[in-house]
Amino acid sequence: MKRINVGLRFCLCVLSALLLSAGWFNLHLPWLVLVGFVPMLLLMRDIIAENGKRGGAKFFGYSYLMFVLWNLITTWWVYFASPAGVFMAVLASSLLMALTMRIVYALWKRGGEKVGLIAFVSCYVAFEYLFMNSEIAWPWLVLGNSFANDVMFVQWYEFTGHLGGSAWILIINALLYKMLTVKLKKERMKLPLALSTTLLIFVPIILSVIRYYTYTEKENPQNVVVIQPNIDPWGEKFDENTFGSQIENILDIATTYGNAETDYFVAPETALNGTIQEDFMQGNSSLLAVRKFMHDYPKSKFVIGATTFKVYYHKHGDKAYDGSSITETAREIGENDHYDIYNVSMQVDSGQYVQIYRKSKLVPGAEILPYIRIFGFLSDLMTDLGGMSGSHGCQEHPTAFTNDVSGVKVGVPVCYESAFGEHCGGFVEDGAQMIFVITNDGWWRDTPGYRQHCSFSRLRAVETRRSIARSANTGISCIINQRGDVVESLGWWERGGIAATINANDKVTFYSKYGDYIARMCGVVSAILILMQIVSGIRRRMGKNEDIQ
Question: Is 276 helix (H, G, I), strand (E, B) or coil?
């Protein structure tokens, strides 16, 4: 094949970035992602064929350029929440993506094209999994997310999750690359290659469409009211002078749309104002207002977001006086006392008992200083969307809220957590029969960011087969059925509510039970490939030494 010149190489990088970006906008063009990596695979093949001394560095540079472009096109809106966040979301994540492709390049060069293509699939999926489970997680550009606006074609995510979707996309890219190189070399197309590629593309899609039209929800109706208060996060939201009017606004919407048959009211992230001490909740005026409101709705529960804190009094070593452990995220108060701050969802009724879930997946740079044991000295530089500094505390595993009236359990991921498939499956493992997503999303202004975030909840509905009620402060609030369809919604910067009936489901999907097993398998394959090449390299060196002797 003819060598690719420098200008064309840059064009291939831009083409890959554009093709990969198509799935993150509501253009109904996720199919372009199926060929998104083909230009980069052609580029990798060409640089390897050059057999130059700095081929790996060249390919890394081109890869980094492509990933930066892809990240910028799809997530530029992070700038509105935090200019520094763009560095993490674009430059840092692109670097990790490019390093992954550099590993693929090395395995391809040492082991040949077949090994390289297997490594391309396994290493990239393993990277997505490791990245999502790190303290610098940025799950936005997981390849499987590209079908979030076209869920009819990925109903099989209930078995594989979105990382299984990533594996499918990468395998098809690899097979289409092989077919293209056969054409470019003017060779005869082999039937097994053409047939396997065709089947792998169309069989999952056909089965998915059949599943979409034949899926029926088990009848277990729950009446919910989703509240969208539309409070400006950059101004009114954190103004103490407006705290009273904000909760009045929320309860006014609840009154308008609720009735005696309402089972749940759902309000956004941090909708309860102020910072509530978990051991003395009865002193918070916003919480007292909600409890008073709930006296008129004895069968209902009010699910709402808040910021809470827990105090560890009189530290002795790593323990408080009551024996509780001082966490690594705890901040000092005076000489001996410490406290942790949490972004929580809570379930409230007219009684004194409040169920709390502490957000587990924290936003790097905004809610958590990654790897605080190493970088704790940088805590003063933290950028926090709520105006606070330092790392939030969290809980280790998702837990669901139980309705003592109906027995129904509901999982309530907070904001960013709704982008993590395996994590949301954890609520189902804990018994959740419905999922309520509470978020703000106003930080990003009227950009693709809030629309992308909303679309990810459609994938969670498919993966878990749970109905989803989504309450977003400034939109998009919506109701999503168990097929992933948005059946009712409130748009951007609208005040209002949605009264709807959704079904609770107690059947646990394969994915909810086993999580990202495909990604873990890819991690094992990647480790084996890397180990094999290391061993092979050692043997070659030993052979050369024997020849010299």
Answer: strand
